[in-house]
């Protein structure tokens, strides 16, 4: 047996398994014959998984079996048919939705993927398969859905046609001869309707389409500027009574422009923009008029006019950098904030700026801001330098005794934070000692010799001292013996040297000795004096 489902994405024909699932097929056939599924939605579509329908409430929680429609809510569900077991192997398998307790009502789904073993374990009863309309299943599978699987655009079942019904009609059920007209409740949807046209430019000319696209892009740009903080609000508009003048001569001043443009009407402010550091003119200015009509007249008559040998360009100001919205406290939720320039008298050093539309509100906001930023004299934080300066100085008592109008220079030159100089500075003392030592060596040597420490007095009964003295005497004796041996060796070497000289002088082969050899004479004298005479006396 077969049933035709006419959907918004195409027709789908399903074949039913009457022998394997008689109860599920009877329920589905009779509900289709009663037009129970007409105008219901595919409320859950998951790509490559399932497309679920059969709930007239379109929520996934409703549904009623054919026996429930006849006997009441007590027969809303019927038991699932588990035998024979049929698996979800192919795409387009038609199954009844299990409510979690092994029961079914009117909801069903069509599989959009193959080999879905996960569904077999949940006891979803397979009772049919799609025989025609695989293209429609592909469109279902490609539908754009949210995170819950709800399609953004409605996919609706328009009609159900039973091609063959082998079961007799149930008593107490009415089957209409034709499909009834849909009600407003059935067609109600929070998503894009089936027949809703998505082409916003349908029936518009090319110029109108370009203009609409430009407006959309401008709105998007304003939103971005608001997000980055360049403008106070995306809906803000530039003022209508302010002119932008550019291509000025650097010599042109604000007073010159005010004199020239004042013939069109009263000017609230006129300012030539200058560099903050150098003060040089940036060659453009803003002129604010009291009336919008005067501003428009100046725009039409002053553009491309020669001023100070320069042809200027005049346009309406598009700057909203100094425009501020009205305070939200005094605005109702349904009232749109207004933006305008402040109307006031011009002063000598007046500057071009803009304020709130509600002057009273602006004054209150300005007062609150200034109050929050100001400090009371008693609450103003005191700088650490001020606290240090206020502390009484140790020189104050001494200064009070000085003459009037005269203060010690040492007190003024010294920083309050610097610590007093230590009188017993070890480094200064060492430096002074070094200077005295290197400056007067002789005097320092005498002082050092006079202050040479004397050996401590010998203790009478100190055995260790006696032993140390005996060791010292033994060491002295050893040193004297070594000295004597060294002297004997020197004398022997000197005697050998003299004997060798004498022997060489008598040798016929040796050259005659030079009598005037001062170097040899000095060496001999030195040897005699240091080598022989001194040691002879000691010996």
Would you kindly provide a written description of the structure presented here, covering whatever features stand out?
- The structure is a single chain.
- This protein has 539 residues and is an alpha+beta fold.
- Helices cover 37% and strands 14% of the residues.
- The chain has 16 helices and 16 strands.
- The radius of gyration is 59 Å and the shape is flat.
From the spread of the alpha carbons, the general shape counts as flat
**What's the β-strand tally?**
16
- What level of helicity do the residues show? 25-40%
Helix/strand structural class: alpha+beta
- Low-pLDDT parts are 326-359, 369-419, 444-453, 533-537
Question: What is the typical, i.e. mean, pLDDT?
Answer: 76
The neighbouring-strand order within the major sheet is 3-4-8-6-9-2-1-10
Secondary structure tally, helices: 16
**Strand residues, percent:** 5-15%
What is this structure's SSE topology?
Blueprint: E1 2-7, E2 10-16, H1 22-33, E3 44-46, E4 50-53, H2 66-71, E5 78-79, E6 93-96, E7 103-104, E8 108-111, H3 117-120, E9 126-132, H4 134-141, E10 157-162, H5 184-187, H6 206-228, E11 242-246, H7 254-261, E12 267-274, E13 281-289, H8 292-302, E14 306-307, E15 310-311, E16 313-316, H9 359-373, H10 384-390, H11 396-400, H12 409-413, H13 426-439, H14 441-450, H15 463-506, H16 518-538
Antiparallel strand pairs: 1-2, 1-10, 2-9, 3-4, 4-8, 5-7, 6-8, 6-9, 11-13, 11-16, 12-13, 14-15
Helix pairs in contact: 15-16
